[in-house]
Every structure is written in structure tokens, then in C-alpha cells.
Amino acid sequence: MMKKVLFTAIAGMMAYGAMGQACVPDVNYQPTSETGAGIKDLPCAVTNEPYNESTTIVIPTEVPYELGGNTIDVTVCEVRIDSITNFPQSSNLNYTVYYNNNSVGLGTWIVLTQGQVNRACVNVGATFTSSYNDSLLAHGQVKIGLTGCGSAFPVSFTALTPDGQPLKIGFTVGTGAELANCASIASIEETISNNSFDVAQNYPNPFSDNSQIAINLTEAGKVNFRVTNLVGKVVSESSFNANAGLSYINVNAADYAAGVYMYSVTANGKTITKRMIVK
Questions:
Q1: Can you tell me the distance from the alpha carbon of 257 to that of 179, in angstroms, rounded to the nearest whole number?
Q2: pLDDT for 241 beyond 60
Q3: Single residue among 143, 176, 209 that ends a domain in this structure
Q4: Which of 7, 21, 100, 210 fits as disulfide partner to 175, beta carbons 3.0 to 4.6 Å?
Q5: 105: how many CB neighbours lie within 10 A of its CB?
Q6: What is the pLDDT of residues 136-190, one digit of tens each?
């Protein structure tokens, strides 16, 4: 009887589906798994805001596999996704995989190019309408070969994971504090520098509930956050300590009357000011 030993990293690798916007794999993404397989995390989504984000899949063509109590290297020849389930509540959901610049439909075998690491890109689009902190579930199969692809046979994803479950893709949807632990958030990090002090535009903007501001620090330090009206009167001000790298400032619309405000973030002697609109 065969079972999986080190194939887990391929577990999160696919989120395929119907029509979506074409995307390009991130050639700089390198998984840290023993197999060399993996998926770049999808950015978190903000509740009730349009979401259109991509992730990169890295698929090796040789992985360790347990056979008869021994671990051997087997060839990964083809991959097929049959469905993705457990999405949060949403409207206008679509998800599409692109491999070698071509979209791939559900239930279609993807023939991998042997002798190299294969990369695919998945686009997910929707407006997610409820909070969510769970995993998307990918159902499908891979064809593996013991002596090359001529002897390849299909094996279900559930036979290749330690817990016998579908492949899992972690995903979070929310606002404010619900997104505090996100490594990245849709439409925020994409416009912020990661090698200098920078402050992103608050998102969403305008907003009537909660909004977030991503900031990047080159070194740890005290951060001052000040909000003024258009005549320069200070409406609110707070300070906190932050580590080097990415941090988030949560803004609650309930703390402000509807209108236009300027917000300033100061850290390590530098200040960046931007505008936000409360509905």
C-alpha cells in the first residue's frame, strides 16, 4: 500500500476554476518545503470590497514517496483539479488557473514539463460578504510514475496528505482587527515599498466602517499617527511601537464625522501624509 511521506507542500498548490483575469507567476517565489513544492499565500480580503488577486504555484516533477516501507523518488507527471470548495460567502466568484499562459479548466489534466520546476498562476475574483478564517479545499488527482511517466497512474489528493483530507489553502476575510495577523492584504501591500519608510493609502477609501493603513519601517521605533481636518485641526492622535517591516493601523469610521481628513504617520524622524474620506 502506498502513502504520502513528503508530498504535503504540494497540498496548497491549486485554486482553479471558471473564468478569471490572466495572471503571471511570481518567478521570485521559492517554497521552503522539503519537496520544493508550494503555493504563495493569497492576500487576505476585506469584507464587502471587490477582490481580484493572484497566487503562484510551484510544482516539482520529482518528490519523495513511500512505497512498501521505503522512501523512493517518484515522477510527478500530471496534475488535475476537479473542484475547489469551502469558499466564504461571496458574490461573483470566479477562479482560474493559468499554466504556460493558457487557462486550464476543472477536470483537465495539466501535463508538466519534466526536468524543471513548473510554475502556474491562479487568479481569484469575488466580493466576499462575510468574515472567514479557514481553508479553501482543493479536490483532484496527480499522476505519478515509479519509473518515469510511461508508468504513471492517478492518485487522489486525499491519498497524498497525512490526514487524508483535501488540499488546504488558508484564507482570511474580514475588516479591522480580523486582518491583524494577515501577512498581506488585498490592494494594500501592492503599492507599498518594502525597502524604505512608506505609508500606503488607507483601504478601503472612502469607508463607512473600518479601514486599514499599511506602513513599512526600515527599523523598529515609535510610530505617531495623527488625523487632522482640512483646516489643520487635530481630530485624533495616537502612538505605538512597531518592529521593522510591515505593520497596520486600523481606522474606525465611528470615531469621525463624515468628511475628508488628512492622516500623517511619523517614524524615525520622517513623516508621510495622505488623505482619507469617511462616508
A1: 24
A2: yes
A3: 176
A4: 210
A5: 12
A6: 888 888 899 998 898 899 988 776 666 667 777 888 998 777 877 776 767 554 4
What sign has the CA pseudo-torsion 100, 105, 110, 116? Answer: positive
Which amino acid does the sequence have at 216? N
The CA-based angle 149-63-82, given to 5 degrees, is 70
Residue 163's CATH number: 2.60.40
**Domain for residue 187, yes or no?**
no
What's the rounded Cα separation, in Å, for the pair 79 and 81? 7
pLDDT above 80: residue 35: no
Considering the domain architecture, whether residues 201 and 93 belong to the same structural domain is answered as no
> Containing domain of residue 168, as a range?
2-176
Is the domain of 165 the same as that of 273? no
**E-assigned strands of the chain?**
2-3, 38-39, 45-46, 50-59, 62-67, 70-85, 90-99, 102-104, 110-111, 118-128, 132-145, 153-156, 167-174, 198-199, 210-217, 221-228, 234-242, 245-252, 259-267, 270-278
pLDDT at 6: 35
Do 203 and 215 touch, CB atoms closer than 8 A? no
Identify the DSSP state of 230: T
Predicted local distance difference test score (pLDDT) of residue 198: 92
Looking at residue 9, its amino acid is A
Q: How far apart are CA 207 and CA 250, in angstroms?
A: 12
Q: How many CB atoms lie within 10 A of CB 91?
A: 10
Q: Are residues 100 and 221 in the same domain?
A: no
